[in-house]
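Bumping with the actual sequence this time:
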Amino acid sequence: MKNWNPRQALFQTMPIRSFVTFCLAVAFTFAAIGVVNDLFDIEHSDIRHLVLRVLTTSGFAVLWVLVLYRRMPKLLILLAVAQAAWLFVSASMMPPPSHTFTANDWRTNVDLHGLLLIVLILFSYGWFGTFFQFEGKRYFAAHTEIELASRIQKQLVPPIQLKEANIEVYGFSIPSGTVGGDLLDVVKGDGFACAYVADVAGHGVAAGVLMSMVKTAVRMHFMSRPPSGQGLLEALNNTLIELTETSAYSTFAYLLISQGPQVTYSVAAHPSIYHFQKSRGALVRHLVENFPVALFENTQFETASFDFLPGDLIAIVTDGLTEVFDRKGNELGELYIEDTLTRLAARPLTEIAERIFQSANEFGKVMDDQTLLLVRRSASSEPQSE
């Protein structure tokens, strides 16, 4: 009973107005069932038994809804016992009478039961109609929000394919649902390029708004500051923390690439940067310890650098490509990324990306957004042919 299906979980997000309306609709529906039950036993019933049956069926129906709504599975058995006990006690307190009806008496009682049944069904229909009206408005509002967030993401996170001088960049992001929280971008300047990946907390419109703020803040930073790589995360942190709630934050990893051999980088609570070194034929990881962006005020972020030589390949990923689990609960991990980068370092970046995404999807169900950014320095200033 611990794993509730989506239909049961629907009650947890239902506004109180809709829930009360739903309970009223259920009450009138089961009240009608109580009238039908009384009609089947009309020879041993009177007005008191009719009212008791109506109240019992409708009341316990509402109690069952409340137990499901409050997600109290332990009370299901208790409620079933209570209902059985009430039926036994009520039968003892009010023994059923015995009537002998004439034809007119039968007709009168059947007509009255039928009229009451029609009234209760009409009330049930009316309350259900009101409930569907409330939930329909809520559904279309949520649907509109999802569509808006999806458009925001498509505009913010388009596929990246760039070849300039001796630098080649390819990036792609796949959201786990309609709207994701991953962001990747390349900002080009005079003699440099900043390539980064961010993983924003949450999903939906709120995450989309935070993504747009991250992207804007990064671009504004490079428009107003020289591309030294210093101060990017501090500026981003100071900008976002004044505009967002405490629950809104982002992991971040970036590379600042110039024509020189050294690359400046930083990692803010993000997975390590993968670096295949062609001269050594080996793969290394680069990481500095930092807090996420927009989590604490006045945070100082560490940066570092490494040599990015011709033929080298760099990859930045989000944990959606590593925290993948199969049916047995085994985690995919990072080794397959290292192996793919090592074996296919000279292949087209699109082929490398396709192989990584394919391996992750074949291993297990996608549970989180998956984002990959690949950067390679070619041996010459001419773009590589694919």
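The tokens above came from a reply further down the thread. The chain has two domains: 6-149, 159-377.
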